[in-house]
Design brief:
One of its GO terms (cellular component) is membrane. Heme binds at residue 453. The chain is α+β, with helices and mostly antiparallel strands. The termini are far apart. The chain is 49% helix and 10% strand. Helix 14 (292-307) packs across helix 16.
């Protein structure tokens, strides 16, 4: 008993010593050439918990105390945040030799997607892989995707047990998770893959998705239960894709025109054909990319529409007014119809502005980086963090930013331009086609720079079609006694609504 008491006293004394030393270092030995460090008591833990609970609130509080540039401790790592348009430009448009995404995200994504793709390969190879994948994101492809997405939503309405009867309640986040994976599977991956999106595949996807747990930034290979399930799911999904590829190769010339067929015919710039395993890993990545953001965003849209049913009716009436010859019978959707639904487009823009999935985008500083206009030099040991969500929530760019108001996009000429409207001097080709740098805009729901999401146009189309079709069939409302929308869940890498939140629905 005495020994245990003595041990407890020694541990307590050691802890207090390290806390004291940490505080003294912050108060009296700060490096004036580096950004200010957010005050913290515990050396390794730092501000991890405060940041993890509500990142944008944490950034806003630090911005008031320290300005746009500050450093906080994230699980032992010095993470320098640079907010605002200048911060987005500095970090997201940094030169490849200065800032690196692979160093940050590689340990997290490689066990999920598999080796030799995305952040587990040289940057030039990643740019080539993005060029290959753009096959499914061309104008012609988007036009054909419209009908495929619509049919998937209609099939879901007919077959889902969540929508049986004339009215009921529905877990929107769960329903949108299913809908977006079905639509992404059919449009981006092809009919053959879509047939395999059965209960088994859905369970595999769920286990694989758990690999994006924040703890895996530090312990991606730890023998934790969720990591074991992640690895088993990745291997099984890889084998499913490899079986499809093997069967097609055995048949010789394929008549398919989907993404797998495209990748099977691609070669890197040195003439090396894309290996089958890399094709399988790219297909896993593509499926998850086509589902993650859209699942959260579509959930937020319907939570907002349920809280404001009169506005939802405006969207339905817009379809009747602009797409129906007799203002009664709505025809099947066409890609060209999307341009005729400006209020729907603005609804999606506003939802992505207020409920963006990307609250933090990180890079590794590869060399000491002077910050223009300041005396700060960010050491090469630091992780850099940009937060496009903070400009989207700034009253400097969006009046009353905390209010969800899709009409703001049609009534103000001061709001940022969309990707299609970006000036020529803000465009660049990183190796997979001309894209917008994006960093001049405060509205960046899909990131910016060489790593910005290439599926932006597909995501907008997917959301537009899903919302349009469901509003043709249902009215939505909040549960009795519920006001507003659920809180944001930051426990995953991507911000999303709190799970298990229900809304009411009834058939038109």
């Amino acid at each position: 008993m005495v020994d245990l008491l003595g041990l407890a006293l020694r541990v307590t004394a050691s802890t207090l010593f390290f806390v004291f030393a940490n505080v003294v270092r912050q108060l009296f030995f700060a490096n004036k050439n580096e950004p200010p460090v957010v005050f913290h008591w515990l050396p390794f833990l730092g501000s991890t918990i405060t940041y993890g609970m509500a990142p944008t609130d944490f950034f806003a509080d630090c911005q008031k105390r320290y300005g746009d540039i500050f450093t906080f401790i994230l699980l032992g790592r010095k993470t320098t945040v640079y907010l605002g348009l200048d911060g987005n430009e500095f970090i997201l448009n940094g030169k490849l030799k200065d800032v690196n995404a692979e160093e940050v995200y590689g340990p997290l994504t490689t066990p999920v997607f598999g080796p030799d793709v995305v952040y587990d390969c040289p940057n030039w190879k990643l740019m080539e892989q993005k060029k290959f994948v753009k096959f499914g994101l061309t104008q012609q492809a988007l036009e054909s995707h419209t009908q495929l997405i619509e049919q998937e939503v209609l099939d879901y309405i007919k077959t889902s047990p969540r929508l049986k009867g004339q009215s009921g309640t529905i877990d929107i986040a769960a329903a949108m998770g299913e809908t977006t994976i079905f639509t992404a599977g059919r449009a981006l991956q092809g009919a053959e893959v879509r047939k395999k999106l059965t209960t088994e595949f859905a369970e595999l996807y769920h286990d694989l998705d758990k690999g994006f747990s924040p703890i895996n930034f530090m312990l991606p290979w730890a023998p934790l239960p969720h990591n074991k399930k992640r690895d088993a799911a990745r291997n099984r999904m890889r084998d499913i894709y490899l079986d499809i590829i093997k069967e097609r190769r055995s048949k010789g010339t394929s008549q398919e025109s989907d993404m797998i067929a495209n990748l099977m015919g691609c070669a890197y710039k040195d003439g090396t054909p894309v290996p089958d395993e890399e094709i399988a890993h790219m297909m896993i990545c593509l499926l998850m990319a086509g589902q993650h953001t859209s699942s959260a965003s579509s959930s937020w849209i319907f939570f907002r529409l349920a809280s404001e049913p009169d506005f939802a009716e405006e969207l339905y009436q817009e379809q009747l007014r602009n797409l129906s010859p007799n203002n009664k019978d709505l025809p099947p959707l066409q890609y060209s119809d999307m341009a005729k639904l400006p209020l729907l487009q603005n609804t999606i823009k506003e939802t992505l502005r207020l409920h963006g999935s990307l609250h933090s985008i990180m890079r590794k500083a590869m060399i000491p980086l002077p910050v223009p206009g300041t005396d700060f030099i960010i050491p090469a040991s630091h992780t850099l963090l940009a937060s496009p969500a903070m400009t989207s929530l700034s009253p400097a760019f969006f009046p009353n930013p905390e209010i969800w108001n899709p009409h703001r996009w049609s009534t103000s000429s001061d709001l940022p331009e969309t990707t299609e409207e970006i000036a020529e001097d803000d465009k660049i080709d990183y190796g997979y086609g001309v894209v917008s740098k994006g960093t001049k805009s405060p509205y960046l729901p899909f990131g910016a720079g060489r790593h910005r999401c290439i599926g932006e146009k597909y995501a907008y189309l997917q959301l537009q079609v899903i919302v349009s079709v469901l509003l043709r069939h249902f009215r939505f409302g909040n549960m009795e006694g519920v006001e507003g929308v659920p809180e944001t869940d930051y426990s995953s890498l991507f911000a999303r609504p709190k799970l298990g939140s229900f809304v009411r629905w009834e058939r038109r």
